[in-house]
Amino acid sequence: MSLEEEAPAAKLWTSASWPFILSTLLLMTLIAFEFFAVTTVLPVVAADLGGTAWYSLAAAATVSTGLIGMIVGGNWADRSGTSRPLTVGGALFLGGVALCTLAPSMAAFILGRLLQGIGGGVNSVVLYVLIAQLVPDDARPKMFGLLSAAWVLPSMLGPVAAGALADLSSWRMVFAMVFAGSLAALSTLLWQSRQSPAVQRSGTAVFGRRGLLAVLASATLVMVHVGGQQEPWLAAVVVPAGVLILALAALRLLPAGTFRMRLGVPRFIGLRALLGAVGTASEVYLVLYMQQHRDIAPSIAGLVIAVAAGGWAVGAWLQSRKPGEPGYDRRIIAAGCLMVLAGPVVNLLYVWHVAPMPAVFLASVATGAGFGLAYPRLTTATLRSAAPEQRGTASSSLQAGENMATSAFLALTGIVLTLNLTSPWFGGLYVIMVCLATLTAAAAFGLKASHR
Fold first, then answer.
1. Model's pTM, two decimal places?
2. What is the pLDDT of residues 311-332, one digit of tens each?
3. Could you give the count of Cα atoms lying within 13 Å of 181 in the half-sphere of its Cβ?
4. What is the dotted CATH code of the domain comprising 256-385+421-452?
5. Side-chain half-sphere of 161: how many Cα atoms within 13 Å?
6. Separation CA 286–CA 289 (nearest Å)
């Protein structure tokens, strides 16, 4: 019997559901911990393994190959169910983390990160499909709210804890802890996947054209990230060319109408892609600007990320208290996208020496809350709108779209790092971000006004 049959409407925690929920939250917390911890320990890893020249590729490896896992994992889940892709994805993820833990060289460490990205991409999509199968529709906002909240503590404590482990023991302990916890979580999830209800299988090929396009897109992401760190003239050629190739691949990877923000699943995917690009870039360049042009200590600049994470938790909790219905989804998504606009606007004013520091922190809280509101509902709305046999593909597109948009936007704007531009140029970057965030809010309110 499925969890959906056993659990009463809108009730998330039951005697049958708690192992799945706890295992999912544990895995997401560990993934989040490593995501934020790597920022702290990667310089130590590069110095220890003698691979400083490959620092950029090591940082971008999981993002780049994660796209392959997302696409293939979605196709595989639609075609064969969740058990097999979760087994293979889990093995690749654990193997990658183990290789990072034991890496004798930077090449081995990067290979581990690449494998980890593929496995993590598969697992992330399969988890969404399992949630769609095992959690009742009206309880899913609560579940996705918990997933959002699972990133909060790691975002606050991950860098500090990783730094302490590196100082007191070794950077390898960070990956060893992730391996042990992930092994336990994935073992339980694999058992749960075998208990999930059977659904109609699609005829989608596991690899096929979308898989090949994912490989092309991942290779292009590596190219644009590496190219963005080269000489300015070379970066100005390689990065735009790579983004163009990526856009052409995205046209075929994402549902038809995503670039035009067509109502339904395409608009949900487009909104999440735009939100991810704006939010990530806004934080990355704010912290950089604060340290380079305002002489603010890294610990103080890092608090901007911490308070945003707190706002995210509040937003995720608030949306979880509203029913999982299409009308509520549209209103909450629109409100969240509007709140995200606060970050780029206030950051722009701060760069222009108009807004004071306290306003930046308040805007970060508002932006974080906007993400906490919008992200869970975008996922819920996407799963509700997709046919049962297409939930894997829809989930992979949701994450792949954000992955590609964020990476491409950071690569384009990342040329600023090679040019060593002055303060006014940061204002120009934030003007672009404000425009993109305004477009996102307008598209979200168009969703609210629709009756579809």
1. 0.71
2. 888 898 888 887 767 788 889 9
3. 19
4. 1.20.1250
5. 18
6. 5
pLDDT tens-place string over residues 350-391: 999 999 999 999 999 999 999 999 998 998 889 888 887 777
Rg of the chain, C-alpha, whole Å: 21
109 vs 141: CA distance, rounded Å: 37
DSSP letter (8 states) at residue 242: H
Amino acid in the structure at residue 143: M
Residue in 268, 263, 307, 264 with CA at minimum distance from that of residue 286:
307
Angstrom distance (rounded) from CA 92 to CA 126? 14
- What is the helix (H) or strand (E) element at residue 105, kind and residue range? none
Dist. CA 71–CA 118, nearest whole Å = 10
Q: Euclidean distance between the first and final Cα of the chain, in Å?
A: 33
The position carrying tokens 């894997």 is 392
Find the DSSP H helices in 352-422: 357-385, 391-413, 415-419
Helix, strand, coil shares of the chain, percent, nearest 5, are 85, 0, 15
For tokens 């192992």, name the residue.
19
CA dist., res. 13 & res. 8, Å (int): 10
Give the Cα separation of 171 and 34 in Å (integer). 11
In the predicted model, what is the mean pLDDT of the chain? 81
Sign of CA dihedral 78, 268, 66, 45: negative
Burial letters for 171-193: b for 16+ Cβ neighbours within 10 Å, e otherwise? bbbbbbbbbebbeebbebbbebb
Q: Which amino acid belongs to residue 206? A: V
Q: What is the pLDDT of residues 8-19, one digit of tens each?
A: 445 777 766 778
**Rounded CA separation 157/308 (Å):** 13
DSSP conformational letter for 201:
P
Distance CA 91, CA 64 (A): 19
| Residue 170 burial class via C-beta count within 10 angstroms: exposed 0-12, middle 13-18, buried 19 and up | middle
User: Can you give the residue ranges of every domain in the chain?
Assistant: 256-385+421-452
